[in-house]
Amino acid sequence: MTEVPSARGAEIGRRIGVGLMYGLFRPRVLGAWRVPASGPLIFAVNHSHNLDGPMVMGVAPRATHFLIKKEAFVGPLDPFLTGIGQLKVDRDTTDRTAISRALSVLENGGALGIFPEGTRGEGDFAAIRAGLAYFAVRGGAPIVPVAVLGSSDRAGRLVKALPPLRSRVDVVFGDPFEAGDSSGRRTRKALDAATERIQKQLTAHLENARRLTGR
């Protein structure tokens, strides 16, 4: 039987994130009203800095269970991240435990957080993995695109250090959209087509977010 990630833990994580992110930085949140108040959904977040996940956890209007690489679950962070409802995933294999737990989040009407690029990079949604399409179609969940801008010192440059304290970080939520073609098919061809649709939507949202924020 699949262990269901703790919804209460994720809410505690959200509250911790609120305190940390608003205490250390100056988040500017745009479009949060677009996020459905209930029901399964997937936050698809661009990823250029380690701060992106905690930032979205802290400013999103709903508690979020993020799929996080297993390498982050080290020492005391392991029980902490698990306790706040985050999901450990092995990126080097088909991690069926992580897949089952992620689907259970959606089946219970929760919010799943995914970095579609799979790892930190340019943060421009240029390479989208098929996993996002699978979860969206299998879980019957709309995708909410999220652009985090300002977590690195300049667009397209990956930095290891945190942004300066009290610096502004923009988080822009987009309109939810369906990834599938309403057929419910999960064949490789159907998921490839869904991934292509997703990439176009996410790229368009990121471009709009940059225009909106001037970043």
From TrEMBL:
Coiled-coil positions: none
Keyword terms of this UniProt record: Acyltransferase, Transferase
Pfam families, A to Z: Acyltransferase
Molecular function terms, GO-annotated: 1-acylglycerol-3-phosphate O-acyltransferase activity
Family matches, as InterPro entries: Plipid/glycerol_acylTrfase
Record domain Phospholipid/glycerol acyltransferase: where: 41-151
GO annotations of cellular component type: plasma membrane
Biological process per Gene Ontology, one example term: phosphatidic acid biosynthetic process
Protein name stated in the entry: 1-acyl-sn-glycerol-3-phosphate acyltransferase
KW Transferase (keyword) present: yes
Signal sequence, renumbered to the chain: none
